[in-house]
Structures are given as structure tokens and as C-alpha cells.
């Protein structure tokens, strides 16, 4: 794991809040001159701290009004079946996130579709027919209470000395 100092954390936090921030403005925000700031950003990218840049988009604004969390249980956990399942999931545009998890299920999917009919089509004609799928359980998201998909480590303020 890479060691991040407070300046690195401030850089990451600033880019999380505003990914298109010009390097001059970023440098000013974190207290560096542009050249060392650019070197730090490049190092953070090369070391995998910053993995990519993207725009956060509103699903309803894109016509994706239904969101679901789908628990998937496999009946076969052989490497071949799991790899085939994962490959099929990666190819499905409705699945925006897939996590291998512990507990009663094997995978948790975040699925976006335009409506219930589209979700039903995905679930019945695609998901349930994928390799190794024994069963699924879907929960529909009624309201997003918090969606901080862009997050960053918060720099720790120096410890206050007591008087």
C-alpha cells in the first residue's frame, strides 16, 4: 500500500470533488507550485491511487429510472464457472457494479434499467441463464439517501495541544 501524506490526500480530495481542475488551480489549493503538483498527480496515477477520471452522471437523466441491487447465488463455484459468470456480467451494460461477497450470496450486482419491463427482461432472459446461477434476489432502490461515489481520504489535522 502506498503511503499518502497530507498533500497527496488533499490532491486526491480536490480531484474527487472536481476532476477537471486545472493543475495550476489544483496546485494552489494544495499549497504547491504547478510542477511538483503535476509530478505528484502523475505518481498517484502510476501507483494506482488514481485509477481513472470519469463524469458522475444522473441515471434518471440518462433514462435509467430503475435501480436494483441483485443478490446472486451460484450452484457451482469451480474456477471455470465463476470465470464464465464474471465474463458474462462484465458484458452486460445494465450491470454497473458487481462485487464478490461473503455471506448467503456469492455476488451483489448494481443494475440500472429504464423500467421494470427492461429489468425483468434482463433478469429472466440473461441473468438467470448465466453459467452457474442457482438463484437471485432483487431489491429495488426507492431513493438514494447517499451516493458519494467520488470519495477521498480526509487529511488529518494536526493534533491540538492541550493547555
Provide an overview of this structure.
15% of the residues are buried. This protein folds into two domains: 6-46, Winged helix-like DNA-binding domain superfamily/Winged helix DNA-binding domain (Arc Repressor Mutant, subunit A), CATH 1.10.10.10; 60-140, Alpha-Beta Plaits, CATH 3.30.70. Helix 1 (6-17) packs across helix 2. The chain is built from five helices and four strands. It has helices at residues 6-17, 23-30, 34-46, 79-91, 116-125; strands at 66-74, 95-100, 107-113, 133-140. The protein has 163 residues and is of the alpha+beta class. A four-stranded antiparallel beta sheet has the order 2-3-1-4.
Short description:
The chain has 163 residues and is an alpha+beta fold.
Characteristics:
Alpha-Beta Plaits; 18% strand; alpha+beta; Arc Repressor Mutant, subunit A; 163 residues; WH-like_DNA-bd_sf; 5 helices; single chain; four-stranded antiparallel sheet; transcription; transcription regulation; AsnC family transcriptional regulator; sequence-specific DNA binding
